Amino acid sequence: MDGIFFLILAFFTIFTSIKLSYFGDVLSKQSKLGSAFVGGLLIASITSLPEFVTSISAVVLNNPTLSFGDIVGSNMFNIFILAVYNIYFFKLDIFKNTSKKYLIECTILFIDYLFIILGCVNILINIVSIVLFVLYLVYMYFVFKSDEEDNVVVKKTNHIVIKFIFTGIIMIFLSVLLAYQADKISRLYPKFSSSSIGAMLLGITTSLPEVVTTYALLKLNNFNMAISNMLGSNIFNFLVLAISDLFIKNNYIYSYSDKYSLFYVFGGILLTTLLSISIMTKVNKKIIYIFISMLMISIYFIVWYLQFI
Questions:
Q1: Quick check: helix, strand or coil at residue 269?
Q2: Which is the CATH superfamily of the domain at 2-150+158-306?
Q3: Which of helix, strand or coil describes residue 157?
Q4: pLDDT tens-digit profile of 89-118?
Q5: pLDDT of residue 249
Q6: To the nearest 5 percent, what fractions of the chain are helix, strand and coil?
């Protein structure tokens, strides 16, 4: 019954997150905000709200390992999905048609990962969260600087602000229940660590709004906003990790990482590296992009396999 209840909560969380993403998108277009701001900051933050609530809820429930696993699992899953989409939309040359300016976002993620690893091994652990905060501010500066006007006409929607706020409240409530249920499952099945539960259950479930949003953007051939949405969500997730750290007394959230969550940290570094290579590589042979994407997918499933040995 616990698993069924978790799936029910996951379904409603995903549905509500998608609606919230739609309302946020409409608001941004009505205010004539640029594509970089919409995809990389607004939509990325909105679709990452489940990670925000579930991560902090897990810490409040005295299970910070679950919180850490949720964030690193979600980030790796997001890049994995981009690789899947690159193969699914084979003819669109997604990575080839993505602007190289998004390599800056990949660089920010690299630095985030570096300091998180330092925190996990108890080196500079007291400044890791500060660095994650500062890097998010740097990211915001980059977004505003590279912001461009969208020429999309959207029909005015009445009471969109009220709908946005109401949907957000519902999603927060569902996310808290989702974190509570995942915490309960992790305690009922001690064979799996809390970080594994966080990475596999929460990490994937809370990332599904990004998956759906990115798919819709790719269908519209808006490759830059799609990539920016995923990378922006990952950077925001690390900000969530830093905020969650504030709720832990006399310790740091990075101290609660175990070997399973570290698998996702190093896997995330590898996938982000391969994504950067795909964006930088502007060759005509599609087989190169497909090979790199297949390698990214393989790495993701290898990390999954390592959770069970």
A1: helix
A2: NCX, central ion-binding region (1.20.1420.30)
A3: coil
A4: 887 778 777 778 889 999 999 999 999 999
A5: 84
A6: 80, 0, 20
